[in-house]
Design a protein that fits this description.
The complex is a heterodimer. By secondary structure, chain A is mainly alpha-helical. Chain A is 76% helix and 0% strand. The longest helix of chain B has 16 residues. Classes of the chains: A mainly alpha, B alpha/beta. Chain B: It is found in: Cell membrane.
Amino acid sequence: MSTATLTSVFVRLKLSLLRNGLRQSSGRRTAFVVSMVFVLLLAAVQLLGLIMLRGNEHAMSLVVLLTGLLALGWAVLPLFFPSGDETLDPTRLVMLPLRPGPLVAALLVASLMGIGPLFTLCMVVGSAFALSHGVVAALVSLVAVPLALLVCLALARTVAAANIRLLTSRKGRDLAVLSGLLIAVGIQFVNFGVQRLGDAGGLAALDPAAAIVRWVPPASAIGAVDSASDGAYGQALAQLALSAVALVLLLRTWRHSLTKLMTAPDGSTLAAASEPTRKGTTSGLHRLLPEGRTGTVMQRSLKYIWRDPKTKGAWVSSLAIGLIVPIFNALQGTGSIYFACFAAWMLGIMMYNQFGQDTSAFWMVALTISSTRDAYEELRARTLALLVITLPYTVLVVVVTAAALGEWHDLPEALGLSFALLGAMLATGAVASARFPYSIPQDSAYKNVAPGQGGLAWLSIFGGVVMAALLCAPVIVLTIMLNASAGSGSETQWTVLPVGVVYGALITWAGMRVAAPQTARRLPEILTAVSKG
Amino acid sequence: MPDQAVEETGGVRTAPPAVHVEGLWKRFGEQIAVAGIDLTLPAGSFIGLVGPNGAGKTTTLSMVTGLLRPDQGRVQVAGHDVWRDPVEVKSRIGVLPEGLRLFERLSGRELLAYNGRLRGLPGDEVDKRAGQLLDVLDLAGAQHKLVVDYSTGMRKKIGLAAALLHNPEVLFLDEPFEGVDPVSAQTIRGVLERYTASGATVVFSSHVMELVESLCDWVAVMAAGTIRAQGPLAEVRGDAPSLQAAFLELVGAQGRDNGESLDWLGGGAR
């Protein structure tokens, strides 16, 4: 088959896949249209911004770094969204009689279809326009724009092809589930960086970095436009050549890994067979826990926090956000020690939808619960597993916040409030787990609710949080009264601590007492609700 | 039927049927999955529940094991009502469902340890039984690997081990041989035959007639949410040459396209 025919086949395949994907559900169609509009708006704003940047003395620095960032995004993207583009997976083409040369060309052209490439094109065109002054620079742009775009796409494809074994393995899918976390943390860093930029006196701070990046493909293609505008034609040519060489090298690497993928045997089963074993890793933990259902359930819950990527992701973000919010506020001078209660609140949310976290494996639990007593022990064990982490962590966050603010005298009060809130969250979480269970899709990092159960999840968590606040009201009122009657620093404020501890413990116990009979009665309904993912 | 484990009939003590179902219904929206079935499965038998895909086998087994609430009807296992007396029933049954997950982030051995202890068995006993089951089911080499890394056959085997761990009176298996390689299938067969030989009951669903014919002594045929026939294997088979033929007749799926439209297929003409 000739390259041209093959290319047209792949372009049509890509369009069909896109169309059929959209036909699957109206939700997906809506999501596509919304993201399309959003990306186009973003691209338009970027384009406008880049055009307005024209003439700015630091334009080159910003534009070159943006291109570098874009290329980095393309390189990392396939690692996190391996299932986003089915034509990305060359192992699907193994059975077809195709030569790698034409295949590479066809796949590269096919990968030009899509929102991502369109956005990239807008960015690159805007970048070239911001920098090009004069006829020569315009001519260089004509080469530089497609070159930069192709390098980005080839980069994504090469990374994907080189890592396909990883991406189709269980480890790779686990990695993808954790990607949401990396992106969230990454955004914090970018945010931090932008703030630092503001402090450091604007765009001039970018110049040293840009001096290097403008020689790195594909940013070097954009750098060439700037060099041509300055009349440094030799430099422009060198920069263009660098990007061109990079493109050729990427295509060759891609072709090499394609050939290897399509001729070597599939190692997925071999990989599974050589997975490391887990002998004796938790025997110590086992000895510390009580016998019977309590210890057994606690042990499984704690193992899942570490081993299940979805659970791990939820825990890490809860722990991180629970610490970041009070501490950052304290460091910025706008904080209050009461913000530390936020940690108890974030961690208490982990109690919600307990059975949804089991997925449809809940049937194993359901088959062993035959009385209210069993259900109570199950819920109590899950709560205890949570407390193993949440109790010390709540204390830690409150103490660190107090240290950051220097408000040591309010420490017992904040601790008492936190414990009461934690207890209320655990109690409402237990009841919500029994009354409003919902499925958590396991394959996607970004979906935490199965289609059609969004309202249920929202009701469960939002309603529960409001209830928890109401349940906490006695302790909150006590705190306010003590503060109002005696002023800050009074001798009686410490009483909030024992009151909070006792109240939190009592309300947790009461919540489980309410939730247990409902759980025991609703086992088949819970199983149906959590098996939709 | 009275709610007791053993009933008196004319002075002769007879064990109650392993499963007794009366007027069982289940609808999912417009679709009727199970349309009022009556079923009596004798204790101590190897029972096959056969039917084409979508016949309602999984729905029936889910309702019988208490994992799905029926719209209507009564289910008794070993003489105890599944919905009114869960304590008696749940300790007597073992289940291997189809299409539901396991706790896949546990290793095979951890899964058995977890399941056995949840069922209230003493820890030492669980570990002893788990070790033997893992050996017999040929999973000893993979016992410390996470279940998520297991193949289909290994998953079925570890699920079977979990279902057998508390030595149930009645074992319910939904498609236990689906997607299982011949070696694992033979292993599973051996364990099940040994288990029924001691007087326990196995109820399993399948659409592979040869398998049912070679394993079972009692068969119930399901199609479109109803029971088309039930009884000892020979009775259900009747005059037909094989269970397959009898089954096709019962579900009315004979004499379809004889293949004239595919006359280009095969050697010779291109």
